[in-house]
Amino acid sequence: MKNTVVIGAQFGDEGKAKITDLLAQKADFITRFQGGSNAGHTVVVDGKKYAFHLIPSGILYDNKICMIGAGCVIKPDDLYNEIENIISLGVSKEHFKKCLKISPLAHITMKYHTDIDGYSENALKENKIGTTKKGIGPTYSDKYARSGIRVEDLFDLDTLNKKLDIILNKKNKELEFVYNLKPYTKEEIIEECKHYKNILEPYVDFNWQENLSCIKENKSVLFEGAQGIMLDIDYGTYPFVTSSSPTSGGAAIGASMGALTIERAVGVFKAYMTRVGEGAFITELTDKTGEKLRQIGGEFGVTTGRARRCGWFDAISARYAVLVGGLSEVALTKLDVLDTFEEIKVAIAYKNKLTGEITKNYPTNVFTHQNFEPVYEVHKGWNCDISKCKSYDELPQNAKSYLKRLEELLGIRITIISVGADREQTIFAE
Ligand code: GDP
Ligand code: IMO
Ligand code: MG
After folding, report:
1. Residues 229, 325: contact at Cβ < 8 Å?
2. Which residue, judged by its Cα, is nearest atom 11 of ligand 1?
């Protein structure tokens, strides 16, 4: 298989994990390249459901190496719980020891990061971002402010001591005087770091440079993104975004293998759209149709349990995602969720309600989004169960027309069609 990156192309939760698990069959090495345990990824194999947050979705195979890459942020207690949960579902501890690797360059989410995330969200009140409160923003902020703690620091007490002498004083001032939160002593932080070291030690790959060189030469690589392009720190609905880059560009940085390693970029889109958390969503449906999508699609968050906002497929944001995400093809998921809809709508333009102007460009200033309404194209539904279709030819004509139109609107091919949560419920249209 060509080295492939799998990226969410909407607001997250597109079914990336299902697609990653599927493509992982043909890969040797699977690596997450950004995000942290804000992600909630579901893989269903033979009816059994697995939830991942940080662990790459290829972990269920026997003989694949799965890496949490340098671009990720790790909350070790969350990772511990995640591993224990998967072990309770029948995957052995030895399997994790053999197959799971962690980059020493990934950043650690400390307790003070989650404290700050929780506080900031509450303080923002009606202007909150609706984060997962997993400390993601504060951890990435410290990374870019050059005052973060990396996995490798946990294994070198001298370095950790030196770093803490530089950063803790400032961090405590921030905690006390900006956020009115409890400061930490150096001893408390050292204890926290020792605990984290014990959790991560079996998996940290200190020989990553040699190992990744070998993998680049001889193996096929699958890069797994979290979140989605419309949550990207640069290109998403800023500031209602996450703090990393879930694009093919992000993979080029966060997986330690460079841009030229990527040969194929699969953007995962739902056949409709969802969003969890705050921020603009031009095709959102707050009526019975939205509720129907939520119920049939089971649209409730894996990480926070929050109900997802639902709406029609937005071809304007999708085309924008193809551009800025560097996508070469599409995996379309949850087509089966539309089985009982008489009419299926797709936004093909936006109308500016103030000026009457029609645009096909995505307005990047989200504070103007209330001025736009979608211009819809209406498609006839297919009114039958497609969840058992095994080939493109078996799909009803109206479903084929819908797919064909989406391809036209996006300008790239839909090569994977998902008609159910299970690994087997997939059609390859290549
Ligand atoms: P991710 O974060 O992009 O990996 O997606 P999530 O796991 O958060 O949410 C996707 C949900 O849809 C999960 O419950 C999946 O099991 C489910 N799912 C994935 N593909 C399909 C599909 O084609 N049809 C249906 N009905 N469910 C799907
Ligand atoms: P997966 O990988 C959906 C959203 C949050 C919030 C914003 C910022 O499962 O698709 P953060 O905690 O990252 O600072 O929150 O991003 N968000 C997600 N929404 N799926 C995700 O991950 C998400 N990860 C973050 O709801 O709006
Ligand atoms: Mg998810």
Report:
1. yes
2. 15
Residue of 13, 34, 38 to test ligand 2 pocket, by largest number of atoms within 8 Å of CB: 38
Instruction: Give dist(CA 7, CA 2) in Å, integer.
Output: 15
Q: Which fold would CATH assign to domain 4-106+204-266?
A: Adenylosuccinate Synthetase; Chain A, domain 1 (3.40.440)
Enumerate the active-site residues.
13, 41
**Is-same-fold flag (4-106+204-266; 107-200)?**
no
Say if pTM beats, i.e. exceeds, 0.85: yes
Distance 39 CA to ligand 2 centre (A): 6
Type of residue at 226: A
- Along the 430 residues of the chain, how does pLDDT read in single tens digits? 999 999 999 999 999 999 999 999 999 999 999 999 999 999 999 999 999 999 999 999 998 999 999 999 999 999 999 999 999 999 999 999 999 999 999 999 999 999 999 999 999 888 899 999 999 999 999 999 999 999 999 999 999 999 999 999 999 999 999 999 999 999 999 999 999 999 999 999 999 999 999 999 999 999 999 999 999 999 999 999 999 999 999 999 999 999 999 999 999 999 999 999 999 999 999 999 999 999 999 999 877 888 999 999 999 999 999 999 999 999 999 999 999 999 999 999 999 999 999 999 999 999 999 999 999 999 999 999 999 999 999 999 999 999 999 999 999 999 999 999 999 999 999 6
Domain boundaries along the sequence of the chain: 4-106+204-266, 107-200, 270-428
**3-state SS, one letter per residue, for 355-394:** CCCEECCCCCCHHHHHHEEEEEEEEECCCCCCCCCCCHHH
Distance CA 28, CA 1 (A): 9
Would the CB of 20 count as within 6 Å of ligand 2? no
Q: Is the CB of 132 under 6 A from ligand 2?
A: yes
Burial class of residue 48, CB neighbours in 10 A (0-12, 13-18, 19+): exposed
For domain 107-200, the CATH architecture is Orthogonal Bundle (1.10)
